[in-house]
Amino acid sequence: RREGGGAPGRAGTARFLAQHNTWGFVATRAARGKIQGMPYGNCLLLSDGPINNSTGIPFFYVTPKDNTVTDLLKNPMASLTLPETDGNFCRRNVIDPEDPRCARLTLTGQMVTVPPEEIEFAKQAMFSRHPVLRKWPRSYEWFFMKMNIEHIWLQSW
């Protein structure tokens, strides 16, 4: 059990990481230029729901100007890694987040555009945790994506 939250066990740890991480590392397969077909990664802000309604489904507010999004629009398969950086366990014990004792959750699946019937929820999810997003330039053509999770890998030693 992680200190400060989550149900006991591996599922509780995974849910804790999904709920409390505000960003994650998204890996794709590059779809452009000289790196086409190679692995490519980027950190993106995320939310699994409004603070009082965690779903475990990661939502993102993205722009097609981002290379990661360009990749996802051509090949939606991705992985998302959520490190235990926002919790207290590693910080309190002065352990680097990359130390194997700090939990790490990797989700793989398809990144899809949020359907119209879920847009309001996606807005609440992202804007409640990241209010500054409302002020980002509209000219960047922001839209919402979410990950349809197919596989879960939890490193929790």
UniProtKB/TrEMBL annotation:
Keywords: Glycoprotein, Secreted, Signal. The gene is Creg2. Its main location: secreted. It holds the Pfam family CREG_beta-barrel. The keyword Repeat does not apply. InterPro entries: CREG, CREG_beta-barrel, Split_barrel_FMN-bd. Residues 10-157 form the CREG-like beta-barrel domain. It comes from the Eukaryota. Belongs to the CREG family. It is found in: Secreted. This is CREG2 protein. One of its GO terms (cellular component) is endomembrane system.
